Amino acid sequence: MQRTNSNSPFQIKEAAYEKQNRKMRKENPGMGKRLKSGTSPRRVSFACRFAGMKGPMKDSKGEPTKKAMALKKWGFGSVGAASKFCQKNKSKK
């Protein structure tokens, strides 16, 4: 995360999100790392799961929701981008 001298609401919210994830990852050491690029089965699964998830990308204050931040951390700018990635890379059964 980039550090700047100002404490914008987004930076504060992102810092809180990272703090929560550090705690979760510490408690669950078997969790894999986030994948921001590539076509790993885990990343495809994440994209498919979040592509179908309902809910806003911004809350009532105009700040990104946890859903939006999770998509960003996995390298997706929107639900549409995750959906397109999912359709392109999911395995055909």
Task: Provide a compact summary of the structure.
The protein is built from four helices and no strands.
* Topology pattern, helix = H, strand = E: HHHH
Query: What structural class should be given to the helix and strand makeup?
Result: mainly alpha
Low-pLDDT stretches are none
Quote the distance from N terminus to C terminus: 39 Å
How many helices in DSSP terms? 4
Largest beta sheet, briefly? none
- The structural domain count equals 1
Query: How much strand?
Result: under 5%
CA gyration radius, whole angstroms: 15 Å
Helices and strands, with pairings:
Elements: H1 9-27, H2 41-51, H3 66-73, H4 79-89
Q: In words, what does this structure look like?
A:
This protein is mainly alpha-helical. It has one domain (10-26, 37-89). It contains four helices and no strands. Helix 2 (41-51) packs across helix 4 (79-89). The longest helix is centred in the first third of the chain and has 19 residues, at 9-27. The mean pLDDT is 80.
Question: Which tags fit this structure?
Answer:
mainly alpha, 4 helices, flat
